């Protein structure tokens, strides 16, 4: 196997098997699960007091009503006496007696308070539908007459999405995206810088460099980190999808999803497009800078300080986006959307606001990819000198000596 | 065979290597000695291409390139492994970087651990091992891929006599298999006991180079070990004896002003009678090292 791949696989397996990675990947899902669980519990706790019982001497009728109103009905209660007792004890909101007498469908509701309006509408619809079916049956109509009577009016709503909901989509997409980029970037910058700094001047690096070229080792290392980042993004996408599908099957959340469908879908769309490529490439370029700064520390003990340059640069780009969150057309945004280190924040901002065409996006991506390749190539060439020299002098002296170590 | 021809290396104003030349033949052990800062590690780093240098280093007549790395086993001066890996993972990872597949190396690990008497299981983490055992694991990593060129920087430092013997045995085994071996050491007894050749560096320059016998003989047989009932004062009165050192009991070391005067001293001391010991020898490597460290042999 190619030695670059051996290094990449070792780095990848070591990192994904570590507890810190597992916690990093699982924690957002755990937090989401806990917060949704708490929300669900509070929404459903004491839910019986909102439910009603349905009592009927006609089991088919009762079953039919329950099948269309499952969420509002406590199915266990089947007798009037039990229902009365539970209403008295505030364990049921009320009970509905359904009956068919003399070809007439009737419903009587017993409660301390009037029926919830949406349930009331549902009851009225149910009664109308059943009464109509009985009426048709009693009238003994021909098939043509039946067809005429079953004709329904048409009612359709054509709602133009308001600009305010569009704005919410853009702002929400922007914040989610920049925060995800920032968090992932900070995490990987620290991990990479600290790992490389901890190898600085150690003899294991001499052993490794007596087996493969430092440039191959560096590229392998960055490839390994890239694979870890890809794994994390993939876990988030797959995990997020599974979570979404599970929640959609829970009626409490389904209602929320249905209600905010017009917001949720475009936000997910904004996150799962070319912006994901910017997230990935952005993290890569910051990781390479972190690797460089990690290799420049004076000694392994300084590892915690190693990520600072990359983190400060990341923070600068992150905070710089704030004034422009609702001004994606500004000249500064346009310029920075092509500048590596900043483009990962600013081009997604333009994309979310539909302010960037395919050509502009391609050009910005090309600049970013070329910069990454150039950086990786240059640092891989001087990596051996940076890593092997141990010189407890000033930063600039270390840089100079590292660059000239091979000359 | 490793050929080092006229290599030079300068760090700023410091000349770390100055026209260094020597060879490391196949199937032989070359000891590289010198005081701290003499240029031993810089020589090793130059062989391994960690540094750019002036001059020429060739392996079997060709410059050392990445393609030769798989045939090199290198043990650096300080010990360092990857603490989070297990013994097995560490050995396999470094062997794979030497182009040896895991399936070839894995079955050999137990034998190598026995050979070096490593205490622990191969599933133990490196960080859980004692310093001595970590050093042994590192030696296994250096040798398990059967390198043709073995570079050992201070391999005996920190090892007790029992473990030193295990290492010597492994080095001699590699030599018998035809490997060219170069190692640095401050312990002249180790150098003398297993080296075929010796190179001494002093402030970046070669001051001694040759087989152990050649180097010692170049200093002349100016030392005589005697076991006699004569006193130290009596021995001091002998002609051509410039220094008497009492070793123990009736054993003394005499230094002669001229090696050719040995027979004359023998006659005076024995008077034609039996003497338990009269052994005329060149200086030991330890004495040569001390002499050379102070001044350059003319």
UniProtKB/TrEMBL annotation, chain B:
<dbReference type="InterPro" id="IPR017871">
    <property type="entry name" value="ABC_transporter-like_CS"/>
</dbReference>
<dbReference type="InterPro" id="IPR003439">
    <property type="entry name" value="ABC_transporter-like_ATP-bd"/>
</dbReference>
<dbReference type="GO" id="GO:0005524">
    <property type="term" value="F:ATP binding"/>
</dbReference>
<dbReference type="InterPro" id="IPR025302">
    <property type="entry name" value="DrrA1/2-like_C"/>
</dbReference>
<keyword id="KW-0547">Nucleotide-binding</keyword>
<dbReference type="GO" id="GO:0016887">
    <property type="term" value="F:ATP hydrolysis activity"/>
</dbReference>
<dbReference type="InterPro" id="IPR051782">
    <property type="entry name" value="ABC_Transporter_VariousFunc"/>
</dbReference>
<dbReference type="InterPro" id="IPR003593">
    <property type="entry name" value="AAA+_ATPase"/>
</dbReference>
<protein>
    <submittedName>
        <fullName>ATP-binding cassette domain-containing protein</fullName>
    </submittedName>
</protein>
<feature type="domain" description="ABC transporter">
    <location>
        <begin position="2"/>
        <end position="228"/>
    </location>
</feature>
<dbReference type="Pfam" id="PF13732">
    <property type="entry name" value="DrrA1-3_C"/>
</dbReference>
<dbReference type="InterPro" id="IPR027417">
    <property type="entry name" value="P-loop_NTPase"/>
</dbReference>
<keyword id="KW-0813">Transport</keyword>
<keyword id="KW-0067">ATP-binding</keyword>
<dbReference type="Pfam" id="PF00005">
    <property type="entry name" value="ABC_tran"/>
</dbReference>
